[in-house]
Amino acid sequence: MDTSGPLHAERRAATATERQFWFAERIAPGSPAWRVLSTVRIDGPPDREALAAAAARVVARHPALRSVFAPADGELWCATVPPAEPPLLELPPGTAFDAAARELARTGLLDPGTGRHVVLALTEDPGDAPGTTLYVLTHHLVYDGLSHEVFTADLARAHARVVAGEPEPAPLARTVPRPPDAVRRDELAAYWRTALDGVPDLPGDDDGPTQRELARTEPHGHVVRFPDGVGAAVREAARRLACPPFAVLLTAYAQALHDLCGAEDFCIGTPVSTRTPELEDAIGCLLTTLPVRIRLPAAADACERTWTTFTDGLFHMDLPQDDLVRAVRTRPGRRMPLYQALFAYESWPRPVHDAGPVRMRTEPVTPLGTQAEVLFQLNELPGRRLEGMLQAPAGGFWAGCLAKLSDAIEHRLALLTTTTEEIAR
Q: CB burial class (10 A; 0-12, 13-18, 19+) of residue 358?
């Protein structure tokens, strides 16, 4: 990056998560693991020109969507550039998610190196149905799951304003979470060294894979659909155990992993938002991955201990991820450090947004590429329905176990949500 002129003057240091995905892009360029393909459902045929203009307004509004990153002076820097109007492609009617992902990957239009972070593709429902699907391809460097909710809400408002001939509000200011000072970093590093001291890797592919190999491996997925009523049962169990549904679901996943590989001590990584109140309406990769140490997952008090471990971690989550790895990883190894299993839970509301002549709403985001040796992404849908996906690199240890893992998770959830009185009966 040029260290003179306005670009240098407006730059800021990249956050830890931005550094993570910037380096990830360099070890496996173009990997779908670093891309996000999200879905917006539109009830009715939108005005294409108005939709393109609205998308351009959203890009102009959010600094993350017009950012470039480059190293200089031993640091990774971020600067904003003039907004580029995102391409809006037309796909054949009824194009499904997987086909849209393949088509968008072939275009090469996404270029985070020049600040082109958004590519759009539109497909109408087949036949006489009035619905339309908008696919939004972005880079994880500047986009997370909650960003999709923000993007859709802003797109709907901008679409309504374009149709009505109204101007767009001023762009948002560039704001990112503040990193801890040196004293706090030392305190956090000491906490994590103690919390994760001696934690072993999850049994599986003992000689790998590396994160680069994971990112370059075709993912193998298994859809998980829980029966009606399981979501409500999980919430009832959570009330009984004085913890949120997340803790019950994470515990069931940990127990299922234990059932299949016998692990008694391991970590599960789980994405946690780093959004502060002033960042509530911002787009960006505003998250960190919190390592949750799982010990004796089959014990009777596993759920309570898992929740306590997670909340303790929340109080110490502001240590940048690269600092955490340096503080804790004391032995060499090829595999992902700290955790090889991931659990991602999306439970936020998905409101319908007024977009003038049409309405818009989001759908859950499906992972495109391999991000861990085994991943469980779970979504809470309207009506307390639970649906998700298990994913593992094709050919790896867990790829052949996903159906069994799904059954084990369902079995463990049934046990966790059954009361003592019901067992006695």
A: buried
